[in-house]
Specification:
single chain, alpha+beta, Chitinase A, domain 3, four-stranded antiparallel sheet, two-stranded antiparallel sheet, 6 strands
């Protein structure tokens, strides 16, 4: 079941909190479910500087809850949200086209019978040494470089002007005083560079043939690149639109009276445990991680995340109940779960639940949430 929304805070750091984003059955029941995830990280959670783990991992189920206690929802039948047009600029296309073309250019078609000039794109090997010892990040093979692009430190590109393909030169250079690597800043180094060949300035069809199926010319590749960029932009636009719809629905259609603390605590624990796990994997602490990605302290992040997550859960389950999308009958739930699991590649509903760390109640609530958001998303686009 696809993800139904990505919170703005989570979008910015999807690789860190992908498992804790509120989603439908594929994500929410997996790692944001309390169970094993919470217990596995409880000890490590206490390592967060100045922050103790929240230990309430009981999910707050809404099947038998009167949601009018927590919110009122306006008539949403005329709820609409405009979509932005998808755009791919010529500059984006040409940039990616150049990258694909250069990085896959066949060596046998390279120019080798003249000297390198400013503006040429050359394929080079290079090794940088300080005091006769190669330094980290200073070595590469068959690397493209456009002369005059100022990609390298001063003197590197200029030192290749006049060199013919096949020749090797030593460039005596100095890293700038303000260079980001303190070990190299202001230091004298020697780069040994071999020029293999020059890529012709004008793109040629011969360099494209066989690169990608059904792409035989430069224009074919340009169209292929455009289609790829458009599909990527379309996916991003879909995610942004889903986020926009959810924001608008919660802010414009819903009015919250109070929020159940049990639910806030559940979401807070789930996301915190995932932050702790991610911080450990990255060799840092939760506070530093959140500060780096969101420029806010950990407590503020947890407060904001858990409140927004709770509001969205309440809003979607309210719609699910109004539209009879919440499966109330347990026998029917079993049937839906089994069909969904098999359709998703699992042998059974039980295997699906076990693999994703879910209970049937998790599935019931997530399935309702998912269907409710589908309905709201459809309404928004009419």
């Amino acid at each position: 079941m696809k993800r139904k929304f990505l919170k703005k805070m989570i979008v910015a750091c999807a690789t860190i909190l992908a498992c804790s984003v509120l989603t439908a059955c594929d994500g929410k029941g997996s790692d944001s479910k309390s169970g094993s995830d919470a217990s596995a990280t409880e000890d490590s959670a206490s390592s967060g500087e100045g922050t103790e783990a929240t230990t309430n991992t009981d999910r707050f189920y809404l099947k038998d809850v009167d949601l009018s206690k927590y919110l009122t929802v306006k008539d949403y039948q005329n709820f609409r949200v405009a979509r932005d047009a998808i755009q791919v600029s010529d500059a984006e296309v040409e940039e990616l086209l150049d990258s694909v073309y250069i990085n896959s250019f066949p060596e046998e078609l390279g120019v080798t019978d003249r000297e390198v000039i400013i503006g040429d794109t050359v394929i080079i090997d290079y090794e940088g040494k300080k005091d006769g010892v190669a330094f980290d990040g200073g070595t590469a093979e068959k690397s493209p470089l456009t002369i005059g692009s100022s990609t390298f430190i001063d003197g590197f590109e200029e030192g290749l002007v006049g060199v013919k393909p096949g020749e090797t030169v030593d460039l005596n250079l100095r890293f700038p005083d303000g260079y980001h690597n303190a070990d190299l800043a202001g230091q004298d180094v020697v780069f040994t560079v071999k020029v293999h060949y020059i890529i012709p300035e004008e793109k040629i069809d011969e360099a494209i043939a066989g690169l990608i199926e059904e792409v035989n010319t430069v224009e074919d590749l340009r169209q292929y690149v455009y289609d790829y960029l458009y599909s990527m932009a379309e996916m991003e636009a879909d995610e942004e639109y889903e986020e926009k719809v959810m924001d608008a629905f919660v802010e414009e259609i819903c009015e919250f009276k109070e929020l159940p603390q049990e639910m806030i605590s559940f979401f807070r624990t789930s996301v915190y445990n995932n932050v702790v796990t991610s911080a450990l994997q990255m060799g840092t602490d939760p506070e530093t991680l959140i500060q780096y990605y969101y420029m806010m302290d950990l407590e503020s992040f947890l407060d904001s995340y858990s409140e927004i997550a709770t509001q969205r859960e309440l809003a979607m389950l309210y719609v699910a109940k109004q539209e009879d999308l919440l499966i109330m009958d347990d026998a029917n739930l079993d049937t839906v779960l089994e069909d969904f699991a098999v359709g998703s590649g699992y042998a059974s509903g039980e295997e699906f639940l076990t693999s994703n760390g879910m209970t049937k109640e998790d599935f019931r609530q997530d399935y309702a949430y998912n269907n409710a958001f589908d309905l709201i998303l459809d309404l928004a686009q009419k």
